[in-house]
Amino acid sequence: MKRRTSQRAALEMVFQKEDRPMGVEEILNAGRKIVRTLNQATVYRNLKIMVDNGELIQINHPAMGTLYERTGKGHHHHFYCRICGRVFELPGCGLDSKKAAPKGFITEEHEIFLFGVCPSCAK
Amino acid sequence: MKRRTSQRAALEMVFQKEDRPMGVEEILNAGRKIVRTLNQATVYRNLKIMVDNGELIQINHPAMGTLYERTGKGHHHHFYCRICGRVFELPGCGLDSKKAAPKGFITEEHEIFLFGVCPSCAK
DNA sequence: ATTATAATGCAAATGCATTTGCATTAGCAA
DNA sequence: TTGCTAATGCAAATGCATTTGCATTATAAT
After folding, report:
1. Which site from A42, A69, B28, B37 is most exposed, i.e. has the minimal number of CB atoms within 10 Å?
2. Do A109 and B100 touch (CB under 8 A)?
3. By residue range, what is the domain housing residue B81?
């Protein structure tokens, strides 16, 4: 049966603490502060399990590549800070669906990626 | 000095005819209809030249990966048709920058990816 | 405690997209 | 035409992110 391991718990803590999308490298580094032997292969294996569980989803960020984020956030978009390199989830949506696409296109979904400076780097 | 080759001319024709972002595979296939010996390495080499020239830019589409599109289009976004798999450039922008990000975030740029059904597949 | 075996750590292996070495082909100046 | 050499085609090589085999470790049922 499935076992509760310290490394999986570490990953869950990482996602709970840093509540924003993260890449494998960043997740690994943060996880190692909790379980110092944490290995990249273990991170990949657990991320896959967590995605299958429905706790996480993968997103493809045009500048950051594959990121993982917690599910259950509702509709939101992503803000990339060019100073600190972090990606934030922004609730809500500034898209006017009428203006988004010309007549004839049937828009079913959309993703918006914002780029700029986050509040803490702007200070 | 730089030479005008039939394969580079073919790529230019492809981009002129299909005026939308395309991936390497698609560019190769379309190019082979013009120059049947066209090789993938040649496509990569010429795409790089064309990007350096400023005729093309690379974009990273969350669902389609790396695509190449002609420059000089002005601000626009991308529509992916789930039926035909093509990506279209949509002029204009439906983003309300006020609603896009909460107070404190300084938004400098954005990219919008729409997903759905294109006019010709909707018929 | 003991034990079965799921999960880990490590390194090697994969699967991609993309690049490169080299012999051959083909622009283009003379 | 001829000759120089940039550009091509082909296949092998790279560079990544991600996966996998296997010996070892450690969870949890007994």
Report:
1. B37
2. no
3. 76-122
How many domains, in total, are found in chain A?
2
Considering the domain architecture, whether residues A14 and A66 belong to the same structural domain is answered as: yes
pTM: 0.94
Give me the CA B26–C1' C10 separation in Å, rounded: 40
Q: Which residues touch strand D (CB under 7 A)?
A: A 1, 3-6, 24, 40-41, 44-45, 48, 65-66; B 1-3, 5, 7-8, 35, 37-42, 45-46
A105/A59 same-domain check: no
3-state SS of chain A: helix, strand, coil percent to 5?
35, 30, 35
Q: What is the pLDDT of residues A4-53, one digit of tens each?
A: 999 999 999 999 999 999 999 999 999 999 999 999 999 999 999 999 99
Task: Give me the amino acid identity at B7.
Answer: Q
Q: What is the CATH number of the domain that holds A109?
A: 3.30.1490
